[in-house]
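Internal tracking record. Fields below are filled automatically when a chain is submitted to the structure queue. Please do not edit lines marked as system-generated. If the sequence contains nonstandard residues, flag them in the REMARKS field before resubmitting.
Queue: standard
Priority: normal
Entity type: single polypeptide chain
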Amino acid sequence: MASTSDIRNGLCIRYNHDIYKIIEFLHVKPGKGPAFVRTKLRSVTTGKVIDNTFSAGHKIEDVRVETHQFQYLYNEGDTFHFMNTDDYTQITLQKDTLDAPDLLKEGEVVTVIMNAEEGMMPLSVEMPASVVLEVAHTEPGVKGNTATNAMKPATMETGATVMVPLFINEGDKIKVETEKGTYKERVKE
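SYSTEM-GENERATED OUTPUT FOLLOWS
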């Protein structure tokens, strides 16, 4: 058991029958009344973000989690296969535990958060902040179409559809922000 003085970014706690990761916190000591801690929590199982306030000295149940680097190998329908980059053991995860499965490319390295208290059960998968993908299909780009913010749909090599600027052509490599699934920049090689 921990108390509110132990709260820090990245701490995983058990709250409302789920496991949450603290992504933001603020200790508040008002001039009048007791101190409290305002937190922003993200569920490691569903990804839902909630705000919560703990009174000072409140006991919280911390959860011991471990993070491991896993390489994405392949998928069979809704089942995705990953390999631990340290000991080469393999795990399978369902599509609904992944934040952006359509942006995963074979060989991509992701961080898997595992509950160390329940026999290394995978809780969630953290994608890299951005991935580089090749455009498989889009309408032909027109040279000089960089002045406007007009966008067109493009299908990536993984099958994901991303809105890209008009000057992007098939075969171009682009950087895609994984959290929002949006175009970030064109990558020159």
